[in-house]
Amino acid sequence: MDLLFRYETFNVLVKYNVESDMQSWIRFAVCDLLEEVKDCLGNFQIEDAILIYSRMDEETVKSLNEKFVNDVLDIFKNPPQDLYQSFLPTFFPITMTHLPSAMSLFLTWLQDEILHMEKRDATNFPENGVKMVEDVLELIRVEKHGVLLRQCMLNRKSLENLSNLLKGLKTLQKLKEMYAIKVELSEYLEGPKKFVSTLLRVSMPPELYNGFLKNFLQIYMLQNDINHNTIFAEEINNLLKCNGDWLSTIEIIFDNISSLDIKLQITQKLLLNSPVPWCDAVKRMADRSLQFSHPMVETISKMLSNEGRYKVIQNREYLINERKLDEQFCRVVNRIVYVDEPQMVDDIFHLCSIDDQYLNATVILVNHFILKEDLDQAIAVLDRNKPEILYRCGRNLFDYAENIIKARYHKASTKEKYYNFLPILIKKLKNGGYKELEMHHVKERFRIMQGQYFFKQHFGIDFTDAQFKSPMEIIQSIDLASRDFTEILQYADRIAFFLSKDTDEILLQLCDSIKKFDILIKAGEYLYETDSSAKNLCVITMLFLKYLGIQNCPQLHTTVFEKIHDQTLPTFDNLNGLDETSENDKFLKGLKLGDKLIRKAMAKDGTDLQIDKVSKWLDVCFYLTRSNSTLDDYLHPNVYYPKQNMPSSTVLQTIQFCFKDVQKDSEYYSVFPSNMELEEELLTETSINTTLASAIDTFCREGQAPTAYLLLGTVANSLVLHPSQDSNVLKSLKLLEKKCLVQFINAVVSAEHIDLELLYNLFLAMPQDYKKYLTHFLQTHRQNFRKLKDLSGVGIALLDFFKDTEGRAILIDTVKSCKWWGQLTSIHSKMIYKEFFKSDPDARLKLVINLDAVGFEEINSFCKDFNLDVDEYNREYLKSSLLNFTPQYKIEKMWDKKVLVVENNEDSLYKKCQKIIRSIKDKARAFLDMVNILKEVNFYYYEVFLTIYKLLEDNTQTTYSEDKKMMVFLKEYTRFGRPSQREKEAWYTTFPDTQILDPLSEFRVPFIPLLFSSEIWSILRPEVSLTSYKLWFNATYILSNNLKVDDICVYAVKNVVSSGILGTYVPNDWKLYSEFDDLLHKVDECVHNIKNLESATSVVYELMNNIPNGADKVKAAELSLKYAVQYRGQNMHNSEVEKTFKKFTNNFYSLSVRHVLHRYNLNKEIYLKLVTQPEILIENLYTDERVSKQTVFVSLDYSDINDAVDAISELFGLDVGNIRFSLLKRWLSSPNDFDMTLTLSPFKNNSFNRVEDDDNLKRAIYICNSRNQQHLETYLLEVVLTEDDLDVRGRNMVFKANAAKCFCAITDEARIIEVTKLSYGEFLKYVDKLVLLSELESLGIMLNIETLNVMSKRELLKKLYHMGKPLAIKCMGAVCMTYFLEEHKYWEYIINCSIKFEMIADLKTYVDFLKNKCDKQFYINAWQVIIDKTFQEIIHVSNEDLEKTLINNFLMIQVCLVDQYSF
Predict the structure, then answer these.
(1) Residues 252 and 337 in one domain
(2) Cβ atoms within 10 A of the Cβ of 7, count?
(3) Bridge partner residues of 553 (DSSP)
(4) Dihedral, CA of residue 1431, residue 1433, residue 1435 and residue 1438, to nearest 10
(5) 582 and 682 share a domain?
(6) Is position 535 within any domain?
(7) Where is the KNTC1 third ARM-repeats domain (predicted)?
(8) Does residue 261 form part of some domain?
(9) Is 898 helix (H, G, I), strand (E, B) or coil?
(10) How far is Cα 577 from Cα 586, in angstroms, rounded to an integer?
């Protein structure tokens, strides 16, 4: 038969090769078909290989082995996949049919092929890999004779690896399609942790990266039982060790860590390992960590405050060993000083932690800066210490400096540096709290030290301490002729200090010896500025006058006055060509300085006649010598000063000779040099009317009228004292003086500022005409309030002098109005000039008070000026002061937050208001006004409220303790939210003229009556959150009637929902990972403060209802159950509470079970309905169709139901072992449906024949693969090998047979041999017989293995024959195959009955067993029925399964041994 079958195969091959002949047939008839297949594959004759391999005879099938399979798979490695692809649908199914053990070879080859595919076709990978795995798995899934289950169990490890491979491919495909991330398969196969680590480092925009972590990576880790917190922490640690900027990635990963402990640990590591100063990202993460209540938070806070210290320690240039820092502190400081970086001082002080370290650091730094001559920095270093450290540092530094200066071996430059530092140090010590006696001793030591150093350095003179007792000897030995004044003054000051003399006296002695005019002027300026004594001022003036003319005008004696006998005085006309060099300027400067010096001397000592004589001489040139300086204009704006014109030398000499002619007999004149004298008198009647008059007229035209008038007056007054003087001369002078007076007055009034005293005196000089000129000037200058006031004041004084009252009242009112307009400069832009002067005093004062333009003193003065009731206006001022007060503040940025820094407080306002109140007589009315204006005060100006409350409490019997406490609380509180709508309404109602809220509303909560009412939450609603709720606890003691801790906490939790932080609720969505661990931790902390457990339970339950479905909702339910338990404990006998508790309990368990079901992809509606019935749910889970699929073959979309059952059992506290044991016994007790399933084959492991259809047995096998496997395996073995009754009577053999099948499915070959002490084949035969006995038992034939072996098989067949049932027919077939009975009559009956009962599956088994009877008609009939039935079923096959069905049918026809012509 085999030869005929091979010949048929050859004939088919001949059709493809016409050259075949007899020799070819002979060769083919005797060849090894397996080798022929390999040859065809090697020659790429794929069609021939398919035909030969699908038509192997029985002998070839028996010779099929794993070596052949390996050889074929090796051939597949070389050619492209497309060449051998068509051979796989034939090769895999046939090989699995006849050599099931080849599964392990196929799985290994498939894994290798996928890895090579990634390299060959990376563009289409992993899509092509996924397709290949799915195709191959489908091909090797041959369900014949029950061998598939057994091979799956034997190759469980390989299938798990393949399952992992396919999951990896699909994961890579998802990454590629959704996130454009390409990862090599080898990285995935290294394990989930390595794969996660790789994915965490992908380059991606932050907003996409965060979604990638949440929507993919965390789910992946959850599916692989990886703690995402641990992985994230490890990855952050790894990233910190890497080069490059990973902080943006770290921050996103950090935010996705849900464990508070791990998050705080990471924060510490970030602070320790990140470069200092820390960047904004690190600070943001640290700042977020500070929001929690945890012991580690304090440590993190300290680390943040020590940022500077860490920065220093990490500086590699400093070579700091942190562990030895304290013991090597001075060495470290010296090293930092040596490196000398710009931030050196800050770095060193960051390292200091104790007083001795501050002391040592300061001494080292100060010495360093002294040697660098940076004394400002040295003092800055000293200033950084507290007083006690400063005292110790100063003492050490002074002793050290003294040793340096007095030592001979130190360089002069070093001594000088320390010498320059000592004065600064002594001043610092004095301010730093040195005791008076110690300070005196230090100063004396330093004075002597300074003197010795000074004279040695500057004059090369060595003086001992004893020589300082003879100061004149020192002065006489000094030569300062070549020094400038600054040096001379310094020397004078130092010499005076060293000799304990007055500096000014030493300076005068030095100037007299030097005899330089420049030095004299500078000395005079110095003495004037330093407020020297009258004696010294007079001495320097005398020295100045003594040398003034000699040094400045020697050339004039031979030019201007060579023809002095002509009695012709020089005029400005003939002075134009004269020298006007700096010598004249110096002359004027000398006159100016002399005038100032003598005036100051007179102020100090007016009894000295010598001073008066010098003063008169200097007064002649007052208007020439007075400087036009900004300072003088500022200090003396009303003193008249004409436009400055530099006078020529002739002018100066004219004035001098006029004065000399009058004062030639004076003792004072002897100070002038002899060459300045004149031989003839200058002033005669003729010279006055001609030359002097012409000169005076020119003076006036050139703007020097005051000088001319003063000159004439001085000369005339002086001549009066001379009896021999000609009267005509005096008359001519008086006429010339009157003419000059009018010009002088006009010049004074036209000046920017009127010299009132001068104008008054000038008007007095014209008693007949003063009114005429005064009226003219008032009318001319009415728009200039300053001149109007001055002229009015002068007019009042003149009227009083002349005892005239006409127009006096008008002038007084004008003076007052001008005075206040001038004082109130701030209102000039707010009020018209004319309106101010036209308005009455009452309206005027109220207006300026409201404009905040006056103070307390001004109001009192104004009322006094205009005779108003000051009490009324002080009350108005009090109100204005309170309402116009504005806090001074600035906004600083601290990390990502704005911080309000108020720079003033209520103290100054309180003092101001208290002062006003003390001056008010009707205090009761004032306090009533204060109470009323509380409604008008800006809500956010706490300082005003505090001031009013304090004022009222201090001055009345009223107390405002609650209001004040609330104000103190609000001042310390910084706002978190934005103003509420109710707050805005209150603001615009109170201040309707405003357009926006006050800027302080961003930082302050409004202080309004609503805070003390039941509407308080209309203000606080935006403020209370999980971040700020604790801050409001202090306010509950103040607002106890309307604000409770419970309410605060309840609202803080409710605010979580209203804030939108929980996201959008999606009904069918379920998040497997937790996002709000930190949030729920805060909620727990907050709710813990709620005393009313009913409220606590309710608010957490409400929060739970609003959290999106998933892990967070489960944790929220657990939290709500926690408080429900506490609430129940307080109300043990309350039925409503008990009902609520059950509701919370069911909710928690329901959500927890739902989470388990979603996690394991078991979220079917049928299971979700059973979440509160765990035992029923577990049983239903084990009936899931995926259990059958997983038991038969690898299911790549499989979720581990065993793990889900474990989780559910743990949740409810169930004994999962007992539950599984009970289910196992039940499912092993159920009989197989033998009419539709099991048949036996002695060739193909009969015990597993069609076991795939026995769902209960598959469930039992699946249960036994749980974590209770060892226990259940022991139990099954005991059932199989024990002869005692094990179950319900009459079903013990069914139970035993099912137990045997289950045991074989979960136990590998080695283990079976070990525990049964039988060979693997012997044990399988034993199991086959148990199965047969169970089937016979179902038919009422009670046997055991021993009786079955010895009884007559024909007798048994005869009994079964008479039964005629389908099951009896199956048993007949099983007996014949088990005991190898091939008698024609039995098989013909079995085949015919199977055809009759349409037992197609059994027929397929029988024709395979009866291959050697393929010539029998019943065999042919069997194949005919099988083929007909198979193709009839195609019409019921879906399009998706059609191809698979046709391939299987084709393969079935190929193995049919019946000749095609027999049909």
Answers:
(1) no
(2) 13
(3) none
(4) -120
(5) yes
(6) no
(7) 739-949
(8) yes
(9) strand
(10) 19
